[in-house]
Write a structure and sequence with these properties.
The complex is a heterodimer of chains A (389) and B (159).
Chain A lengths: L15 H7 L6 E5 L11 E7 L2 E8 L7 H5 L7 H6 L6 H16 L5 H29 L3 H22 L8 E2 L2 E2 L7 H24 L2 H5 L9 H7 L4 H4 L7 H4 L20 H29 L16 E9 L2 E9 L5 E7 L1 H7 L1 H5 L7 H6 L5 H5 L1
Helix pairs in contact in A: 4-5, 5-6, 5-12, 6-7, 7-12
Chain B lengths: L12 H11 L4 E7 L2 E6 L5 H10 L5 E9 L3 E9 L6 E9 L4 E3 L8 H12 L2 E3 L29
Parallel strand pairs in B: 2-5, 6-7
Antiparallel strand pairs in B: 1-2, 3-4, 4-5
The chains are: A alpha+beta (389), B alpha/beta (159).
Chain lengths: 389, 159
């Protein structure tokens, strides 16, 4: 039997006496980073034990935003959970709503119209790009480059404008429905999307040029916090953070849902395993998302204006179990539905990618300097709404 | 006839069904298979660790997607979703826990990613994972003495 070394838990978590004692020591002490700390990007605490500049131990503390989402969902009818799913994560609302609708559709055993599937792909990829840009902007401020923050936020607004064009909302979109999407694409949506992708690819090269020419920015990421492929898989780290460590796995390609199997794209994978590799994977993913959007828009146009985009579905879901997985901007998200034949779920479990990614923060920050902790933790793109649920 | 002791990097769905049913005769039943999905039940909760260890070591399921609990009123269930990174196959495997004995062996020693999932299941359902490295409350305050996701715990307005 292969028993792994336990690296998540810290066993000398500080007791009150311990903190009192450590205060008078100069060689090692516990620092509480968070819940109100610029690096945390949400409400959580990272307790780090430092020996001089070096982090020797760490323990993440979460739960500040726990609101019993799954229990609340058990007391609502199926369509009423869609806007709740929007609020799981502010910058990945489209993917969570899509995932929820997909899970209920699987439990119902229905096929969504082809056009709706492609519209969902476009919406998901817009969501992915704007989420990655939000992350890029946050990394910029974490590492002291305010221009990246401003440029990232500026580019993000163009994608949010497309969200407005598609469904009338910038962030909590409330757009997918069980059995399709709420409305068809608007008249010149395809033209706008094409223009936006072309413009964005040029703008992204500008951003990359600026990053690569800033040696301070790059040197704070290169070579720190290395994780191996096996470590990453075992710790349950998913998404771009995992692909930067050499795990060649993307649900869109390897376990395709929707109509992703008809779309041709590449999955960026780097084997270095350091912070910079995880960073570059996300940048490259934005280019790939542009490619996916272009192909999906062509498919929507080929289907024509009068193709159906929504089905009428029964309000009661037959008793049974169903689950669906989806590649969220941050990793593998999953919903597991147990239904009992009524119009409300019996149990709805959400697997948020960040819940597991944050649990791996101890092996990630162990051995880095305390000033590099923000750079390391930024690479999992923290969002506490989905972590605490 | 496949060797149940060999290590398979990328087993197909039918191979997984065959291997699990032969290796654990009378312990595991495979109820349904779909494209890249295997649904199975562990009949006795004492075998959970052994089965999961076999799935990890011999079938190369490196990733534990979730460990979750469910309150089925007359019993509780613990459900595992395990992923193979080479083929994208997912094994859904569950075990029933009787209400008077809510103990099951932890799998956090096999997959470290299951550590927090088990802590969450413990605090919300009261399922005790034996030999878990640190079975403490994670999302709810330490002062809680109840398990809020059980069906017996009603929300306000529902009573």
């Amino acid at each position: 039997m292969m028993v792994v070394e336990n690296t998540i838990d810290t066993f000398d978590s500080p007791s009150e006496e311990r903190i009192a004692k450590d205060r008078y020591q100069t060689d090692a002490m516990w620092i509480y980073m968070g819940p109100q700390h610029p690096f945390s990007h949400g409400l959580w605490t990272l307790k780090v034990r430092v020996d001089g500049e070096i982090v020797t131990d760490a323990e993440p503390v979460i739960g500040y935003l726990h609101r019993g989402w799954e229990k609340e969902a058990e007391n609502r009818e199926y369509p009423k959970i869609i806007p709740m799913a929007d609020r799981l994560c502010y910058s990945a609302s489209m993917t969570y709503t899509h995932l929820y609708c997909m899970t209920v559709e699987k439990a119902l055993g229905i096929e969504v119209p082809e056009k709706a599937e492609y519209i969902r792909i476009v919406a998901d990829e817009i969501c992915r790009i704007q989420s990655h840009l939000m992350w890029l902007a946050a990394v910029g401020t974490d590492l002291g480059n305010l221009t990246i923050f401003l440029w990232g936020m500026r580019e993000r607004e163009y994608w949010l404008d497309l969200n407005v064009r598609l469904c009338g909302q910038r962030m909590t979109t409330n757009y997918p429905r069980i059995g399709g999407v709420r409305n068809d694409t608007t008249d010149i949506f395809d033209r706008d999307v094409m223009r936006c992708t072309e413009r964005f690819e040029k703008a992204l090269w500008d951003l990359i040029d600026m990053i690569d020419s800033s040696s301070i920015y790059v040197s704070r990421m290169k070579g720190i916090s290395r994780l191996t492929r096996e470590q990453c898989a075992n710790l349950g780290v998913t998404g771009p953070a995992m692909r930067g460590c050499g795990v060649d796995f993307d649900l869109r390609r390897d376990d395709p849902y929707g109509k992703y199997e008809n779309i041709d794209f590449e999955v960026p994978v780097l084997t270095e395993g350091d912070t910079y590799a995880r960073y570059m994977v996300r940048i490259e993913e934005m280019f790939q998302s542009c490619e996916i959007i272009r192909q999906a828009v062509r498919k929507i146009n080929a289907l024509g204006k009068n193709a159906p985009y929504r089905l009428k579905v029964p309000s009661k879901v037959p008793a049974g179990k169903a689950f669906c997985k989806l590649e969220d901007p941050r990793g593998e998200s999953l919903m597991y539905l147990i239904s009992d034949g009524t119009d409300k779920p019996f149990r709805l479990k959400v697997r948020a990618p960040l819940f597991t990614n944050i649990s791996a923060s101890r092996p990630m920050v162990k051995g880095v300097r305390v000033a590099d902790v923000p750079a390391v933790m930024a690479m999992i793109d923290v969002c506490m709404g989905e972590t605490d649920r | 006839m496949m060797d149940t002791e060999a290590i398979y990097q990328e087993p197909s769905v039918s191979e997984i069904k065959h291997l699990l049913e032969n290796k654990f005769k009378g312990k595991v039943t495979v109820s349904k298979t779909e494209v890249r999905r295997v649904h199975a039940e562990i009949l006795n909760k004492e075998d959970v660790f052994e089965v999961c260890n076999y799935i990890h070591d011999n079938l190369t399921f490196e990733h534990c997607s979730i460990v979750m609990g469910a309150d089925m009123i007359d019993h509780l269930e613990v459900i595992y979703l395990l992923t193979n990174y080479y083929s994208g196959t997912v094994i859904e495997i569950f075990a029933k826990l009787p209400l008077d004995d809510l103990h099951v062996h932890s799998v956090a020693l096999i997959w470290e990613g299951a550590n927090w999932h088990e802590r969450e299941t413990y605090e919300l359902f009261g399922i005790i994972f034996d030999e878990h490295p640190k079975l403490k409350r994670l999302l709810t305050p330490d002062t809680y003495t109840f398990f809020p996701f059980r069906k017996s715990y009603k929300l306000r307005g529902q009573e």
